[in-house]
Design goal:
Layout lengths: L11 E3 L9 H13 L10 H20 L7 E6 L2 H9 L9 E5 L4 H14 L3 E4 L17 E6 L12 H10 L3 E5 L18 E5 L9 E6 L16 E4 L4 E3 L18 H15 L3 H20 L3 E3 L7 E6 L4 H10 L2 E6 L4 H7 L5 E5 L6 H15 L1
Parallel strand pairs: 1-13, 3-4, 3-5, 5-6, 6-7
Antiparallel strand pairs: 2-8, 7-8, 9-10, 11-12, 12-14, 13-14
Helix pairs in contact: 1-6, 2-6, 3-4, 7-10
Length: 387
């Protein structure tokens, strides 16, 4: 694909679940910021700053449009990454709001660890829900009364999705609970399951969506009353006296400042807006190529007797181990052939190591940059190793 023209023929990048490759339009947008209107947003009156403000606001609007959410209900803030966003919320909830916090067994450490520290700090119990093999949660098993629920919408192990996410959100709200969604692995290729999902907050990472290194938080405006702002600094206030201040977030048009302390990554935010445009332009052919490549690789791995594949079905994210072969050594062998893949437990230590007792795995994850020749090379290389 021309948008990834920098990817050399011999290089096979299979680590998109960590961070996707950036297409040329995104790289160009970031460069334009630095070379054409490098400026502080929301602080200056000169033309460069006005241009920055305009493009940043366009990105906020594009995020809501992407998920079919309304600005009267939601506000978009930018952070460092998904982990930062989840912690920023959990660290600032008022005391006494929740009787319990829940997460699930296949979570990345972002929700898993943050809910652990939240429970200890609040002095409340923490419960780990089991996810079904298809990624869903059996809602009938759990009580969500006055509960904070933090779960992913898609797994970074094998891409399994929280298929009943809308039913879960409704059940949590009906019982008086609050739900935060980790959308890091879903927004690039499975955003449809999150469209019009009325979660209290959705946290994700632009760098898993073909954008720059950046985090985003989509927060329901009525959640703000549950937040006691303590992480605070420049860019968040309209006035400051000796021992008091007025938050800019008190204005509906500046609600996003509640989670944006200090100078923001203006260029990255603007480039992320370009990434969203780029994603919406993906053709049926692009999506079919992604699906076809996933199917071919899945079929091959499934057919090998010594390969233990975690996936139940094809997905652009697949994890496995080979019987009798150390995955870290396999990762190095693949690297020697120009194939870049992740090895280990992918920040899902509890589920993979302590619950399922798997050895370290190898993960293949790819996106719209993938070429059929990349799959050919990966399969051929694995065939040589297996033989």
């Amino acid at each position: 694909m021309d948008d990834f023209d920098y990817l050399r023929d011999g290089d096979v990048y299979l680590d998109s679940a960590c961070q996707s490759l950036r297409p040329r339009p995104v790289i160009d947008a970031l460069n334009r910021y630095y070379t054409e209107h490098n400026s502080c947003g929301e602080r200056v009156k000169y033309a460069w700053g006005r241009k920055t403000d305009e493009l940043v606001e366009d990105t906020r609007a594009a995020v809501l449009k992407y998920l079919k959410l309304k600005s009267k209900d939601y506000s978009v803030s930018f952070t460092l990454n998904t982990t930062y966003g989840i912690n920023l919320l959990l660290q600032q909830f008022k005391n006494g709001l929740f009787k319990k916090v829940m997460t699930s067994d296949i979570e990345h450490n972002s929700p898993f660890l943050s809910t652990m520290t939240f429970a200890k700090r609040q002095g409340i119990p923490r419960e780990i829900m089991e996810r079904e093999r298809d990624g869903s949660i059996d809602i009938s098993k759990y009580d969500f009364k006055k509960t904070l629920v933090v779960v992913n919408s898609a797994s970074n192990i094998d891409g399994r999705k929280l298929l009943n996410i809308k039913e879960l959100v409704k059940a949590v709200h009906k019982q008086g609970g609050t739900i935060i969604i980790d959308a890091a692995q879903a927004l690039a290729h499975s955003s449809d399951i999150l469209e019009k999902t009325e979660a209290d907050a959705i946290c994700s990472s632009a760098h898993k969506m073909y954008g720059p290194s950046l985090g985003l938080m989509i927060v329901r405006r009525d959640l703000f009353d549950k937040i006691e702002t303590s992480f605070i600094g420049g860019g968040m206030v309209d006035d400051v006296d000796a021992d008091k201040y007025q938050l800019s977030a008190e204005s509906p048009n500046h609600a996003y400042t509640k989670f944006e302390s200090g100078l923001q990554a203006w260029g990255e935010i603007i480039a992320f807006g370009e990434a969203l445009k780029w994603l919406e332009k993906r053709s049926k052919a692009d999506k079919q190529n992604l699906a076809d490549c996933a199917q071919r690789l899945f079929d091959f791995l499934k057919s090998q007797p010594k390969v233990h594949l975690i996936n139940e079905e094809p997905n652009p994210t697949m994890s496995f181990y080979i019987e009798g072969l150390d995955s870290h050594m396999l990762g190095q062998a693949l690297s020697n052939e120009g194939i870049m893949a992740r090895t280990g437990y992918f920040c899902v230590h509890y589920y993979l190591d302590h619950k399922m007792h798997y050895p370290p795995l190898i993960r293949f994850s790819f996106g719209y940059h993938i070429r059929p020749s990349d799959i050919d090379k990966t399969i051929n290389t694995l065939e040589r190793i297996l033989s």
